[in-house]
Specification:
This protein is an alpha/beta fold and 270 residues long. Helix content is 39%, strand content 20%. The strands form two sheets. Strands 2-1-3-10-4-11 form a six-stranded mixed sheet. Strands 7-6-8-5-9 form a five-stranded mixed sheet, with helices on both faces. α2 links the parallel β1 and β2. The protein is globular and about 55 Å long.
């Protein structure tokens, strides 16, 4: 247990160093300067969208011939990057709060904003876990020592998790057990490696992990805010036409089919 705790602390320190240099998001840092300066469309998207968006980008390139450069990470971290001048053409968040924050500062083209997918929150455990977890309430048991969630300050899944803890009246017990991760994919990594007893991720992440983890429970209905994914073109994008075409593919029939294949709940608000 002491070794596992040391590994967790070491990984959290590494994450903090990465965030300090803003260079550990999947796909590399966006950087500053005019968006699209290399001709590619630059998209900052929630980590949980990585697999689906990579396939949608391939479809988009097939249709338009245009490359896409991704910056995947925690929605709150991506929001802050845009607020500080990161060159981004499209922002896709795992929560409305982050998009609302950018809209309030005039940093997105509000007329392009669309909700394009939904998701569910699930409890997962290592595949060889002997704890027999079947519900979120069991996280309060004494034999559950470490529970990984996304950092609620920057990760929507972490914020939804805190709402759910409050709903099931587990707030006081759970806080001392929490291991905060940079994004949902890091939570998944902790669980896959058995460094924590359980973790909370999106249903789509659990599907992507396959038999590397166990799915123990789905969050009770009404236990947290609805999980909606909004997308919008940024106000300063120099590739608004290209960005609009990507969003059209995303909310179109084929884009929605890809999202469905990865476990998202498509939203047809056209």
């Amino acid at each position: 247990m002491r070794m596992r705790s040391s590994l967790i602390i070491a990984r959290q320190l590494f994450t903090l160093i990465c965030l300090a240099f803003a260079g550990c998001q999947s796909g590399g840092p966006v950087g500053n300067g005019p968006s699209g300066s290399d001709g590619a469309l630059t998209i900052s998207a929630a980590a949980s969208l990585k697999d689906a968006f990579t396939q949608i980008a391939a479809l988009y390139k097939q249709r338009t011939g245009k490359d896409v450069v991704f910056n995947f990470g925690a929605s709150g971290t991506l929001q802050k990057q845009i607020e500080t001048g990161a060159a981004v053409d499209i922002f896709a968040s795992a929560g409305s709060k982050q998009m609302d924050g950018l809209a309030g500062k005039g940093l997105i083209a509000v007329e392009t904003r669309r909700d394009f997918a939904g998701n569910e929150l699930v409890l997962i455990a290592p595949k060889d876990s002997k704890l027999g977890l079947l519900s979120f309430e069991q996280l309060g048991n004494d034999d559950v020592k470490h529970v990984a969630i996304g950092n609620p300050k920057t990760v929507p899944a972490g914020e939804y998790s805190q709402q759910m803890f409050s709903f099931i009246k587990l707030d006081d017990v759970i806080q001392r057990k929490l291991v905060l991760a940079e994004d949902v994919r890091q939570v998944l990594d902790y669980v896959e490696r058995g460094e924590v007893d359980a973790g909370i991720v999106y249903r789509t992440d659990a599907i992507a992990a396959g038999d590397k983890i166990k799915v123990a429970a789905i969050a009770p209905r009404g236990s947290h805010d609805p999980i909606l994914y909004p997308v919008a073109t940024t106000k300063d994008s120099r590739q608004k036409d290209a960005a609009g075409k990507f969003i059209a593919v995303l909310v179109g029939e084929e884009g929605q089919s890809i999202l469905r294949n990865y476990g998202f709940s498509p939203i047809n608000d056209k």
